[in-house]
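Recap from last week: sequence in, structure out.
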Amino acid sequence: MALPIEDYAVIGDTDTAALVGRDGSIDWLCLPRFDSPACFAALLGTRDNGHWLLGPRRPAKSTRRYLGNSFVLETTHETPTGVVRVTDFMPIGEGRADIVRRVEGVRGTVRMRHEWVVRFGYGKVRPWVSRRADTPEIGSGAVISAIAGPDMVVLRGSRLPHAVASRHEDEFDVSAGQRMTFNMTWFRSHLVAPAPLNVDDGVEQTVAHWEEWAGRSDHNGPYRDAVVRSLLVLRVLTHGETGGIVAAATTSLPEQFGGPRNWDYRFCWLRDASLTLEALLRSGFHQETVLWRNWLLRAVAGDPEDMQIMYAVDGSRDLPERVLSHLAGYENSRPVRVGNEAVGQLQTDVLGEVMVALDLARENGLEDSPESWALQRSLVANLGRHWEAPDNGLWEFRNQLRYFTHSRVMVWVAFDRAIKAVEHHWLQGPVETWRELRRKVHKEVMDRGYNVDKGCFTQHYDTTEVDASLLLLPTVGFLPADDPRFLGTVRAVEQELVRDGLVLRYRTGAGLDGLPGDEHPFLACSFWLVTAYALTGRLEEGHALMRRLVALANDVGLMAEEYDPVNARMVGNFPQAFSHLALITAANALQDAEMALSERTAT
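Predicted structure tokens:
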């Protein structure tokens, strides 16, 4: 059975990522890319669906940390007979896919358990496994190879496990001062296995890579550690070559244990990519954002009618959703899905997010090329022809289309940022047409998205329900944060969507999403409430909620999509980019509000 979600840490090489359990078991790994089929899928099934365990044979007190601001994971296991340390990492920039694991004896002697079970095809395909001599030009030692179709992995190490039925297992003692290393390498099966890595150099180089990157952040507020770790999460979830950021490293971790709200998040949403660019720019990363911006522009290139809400990490468009019936699901949460049917949805807020990000890039000196501005003009022109259509909304409702207030506001934003590009950056465009469209959208939202009797904005035009996305209205400039209509909306969210001090996306009991069951508070929405508090001058409440939220991260600073405050458990896909994005935004909002207050006090 898989561990609680919060008991996992992530390691990655910016091509893919692995989830390492506190017990030393790697239970999730897709190779060679985030959205490739998994070869370790125990997270969503059983250990027979693939895992790599390297940990104490008997129960241990286990503590872990990342080495500095890196994704080199160090886990220390303390047992009655001794202490052992395991270091796990994935080298970066080697042009290959490796996981390196090093075991070191610290005190006494610890009996270790080693299990290596490879199953390609999301835990379904048993490979042909054999023990053989390494390639002669590489070395004389033995390797274990596992091959199935185009995929092959080899395991090298100080002491290789032995075949036991369809698994490889071993037990051995590690005493103080002893060191053992293991290296698993993936490659295409028609190629020669790459040479083994220098593990000691690999650890130092990998830590140095992450430390150098993290050191570019200029955030210095009271939540700096959480902000830096969140920035690192965004980086580790970003494909190093293409710049596409995946929403999470996993698929089908449930929003309700045992329920059907299980989705594949290993793809690149335009919304998430845009918010990532914003978070980086606001945290001092400028040149690095070129990678994200270029991915955005490549992904949406083509006929504007064909723009999707999400793409594969390389910009591919075809993401068919299917069910993996051979997997039992995390805590029996079925179905297990790969691919995402939401790719075909209409979400009219997305272009607004893209235009906000590109506007911020311009403000920070990243000039548009003629091609990129022509593409933006084309997308805005297409929106001008279709802006009156209902959509599926930010939360990807899979049934009836609605006029979601947040979506309508982001339509206004798209026109607004296009106008700004002409007025402030001397770009060319039909600005008078855009101004008229902006005026019409604003009037429509104020007439139909605001409920006078209730004194707040509503989730969509045909309901009195509220939605946490309404907390974002002042952040995009639609109206001032001190507008009574927004203040009333904040109160409505507090009254109707706060559960155990955290914020729900919306009330599932209203039946709008068409799915059975419930879900837990959404961490990004709780950070949005922090931002709203900061913008409306409620700084004490903002800091109190922020401190609580930051404390909900696991012991290595990672967050899932949702949180169950009753059972103190993380819920949903992990680590979740949206949660970490919202954390960065909230920390910046509090810092800006504190600075503004100090300036007012000084004068």
